[in-house]
Amino acid sequence: MSQITLATHDDKDALMFYIPGLPNHADLHFEYGRHLQDRNKYNYNNLEATRCLKKAHKLNPAHVECLRMLANTMYYRNAYVATISFYKKLEKHCPLDEDEMRKISWSLQKSKKDKQAIVYYEELRKLCPQDTNILINLGFCYGKIENNEKALECSLKAHQINRRDATALLNIGFRYWVIHDLVQARAYTEKSLRSNHDYSHALMNMGHVYWCEGQQAEGVKYYQRSRQMIKDDKLFSSLMLDDAKYIVTYDILQETFEAVLQEVLGNK
Fold first, then answer.
1. Which whole-number Å values give the CA distances from 247 to 15, 80, 157, 179, 241, in the listed order?
2. pLDDT tens digit sequence for 45-81
3. How confident is the model over 152-208, as pLDDT tens digits?
4. For residue 212, what pLDDT is reported?
5. Long-range contact list for 222-227, CB < 8 A, 24+ apart?
6. Which end of the chain is more exposed for a tag (fewer CB within 10 A), N or C?
7. For residue 49, what are the domain limits?
8. Are the beta carbons of 156 and 172 closer than 8 angstroms?
9. Residue 167 burial (10 A CB sphere; 0-12, 13-18, 19+)
10. Is the confidence at residue 222, as pLDDT, over 80?
11. Which of 70, 112, 120, 111 is nearest to 90 (CA)?
């Protein structure tokens, strides 16, 4: 096989001339795609580089380095479905390393495939037991599938490692609220606010706590502060309505909560 070297070639025509007879060789397209990304300081939006890498993948679907580079490229483009696809293909040929597991787990989480994300996060937890980001994301995924016990366990472990982590404190407070422990919910949500007083989600959660304690007026004040921080009424409404399924477990009517939301939005 001809030696593929790109060190002295800056354009495709020169490359093709240098390697005669290999216009449809997978390594040729892979090396040129890699060359383009290297030359452009890893510009993952380089469409020509991606085209070459995809051509290489088509010619040789088992090309491990090509799969790895395509997965990485899609990840940094926030193309999470494609990222998952390429990492799954890569995994058939070799185990994913720690960085790759982080990327596929985050991509699965962003794609709302929480059960699959949990599998990778649990593996990462074994590799990096003191990593609070892994624990927080794992807890978030457990929460999404309504496993409140595991969600709380992960967040408490993250808090044990870093007692000033505002996100861990927020998640603990939220999970205690979900399981109707308002005393602990208030305590941890207040700690979260002290760690980061501009934390819009903590303000919303504190509103939930006041509301479920029967202090609706105070709850509305926190909702209003949260809305001011989020600055996007559509997002604010979506987050509030997502939490409505827990609000109703406190014998509060959905219609009542929605009316409060409209009040906070200034629609009544």
1. 64, 32, 26, 11, 9
2. 778 888 889 999 999 999 999 999 999 999 999 999 9
3. 999 999 999 999 899 999 999 999 999 999 999 999 999 999 987 668 999 999 999
4. 95
5. 223/260, 223/261, 223/264, 224/264, 226/200, 226/201, 227/264, 227/265
6. N
7. 1-94
8. yes
9. buried
10. yes
11. 70
Count of CB atoms situated within 10 Å of the CB of 143: 20
Residue 52 domain flag: yes
Residues 6+ apart with CB under 8 A from 247: 208, 211, 212, 254, 257
Please give the single-letter amino acid code of residue 148: N
In a domain, 59, yes or no: yes
Instruction: Pull the structure tokens for residue 176.
Output: 């205690």
CA–CA separation, 212 vs 204, rounded Å? 12
* C-beta neighbour count of 214 within 10 angstroms: 10
The token pair at 236 is: 């604010």
Please report, as a single letter, which amino acid is at residue 74: M
Note whether residue 62 is domain-resident: yes
| Residues 120-166 pLDDT 10s | 999 999 999 999 999 999 999 999 999 999 999 999 999 999 998 99
How many domains is the chain partitioned into structurally? 1
Residue 104 identity: I
Q: Please report, to the nearest 10 degrees, the dihedral formed by the alpha carbons of residues 53, 55, 57, 59 taken in order.
A: -150
The CATH number of whichever domain residue 55 belongs to comes to 1.25.40.10
Structural domain includes residue 213: no
Annotate 47-58 with b (16+ C-beta within 10 A) or e (fewer): eebbebbebbbe
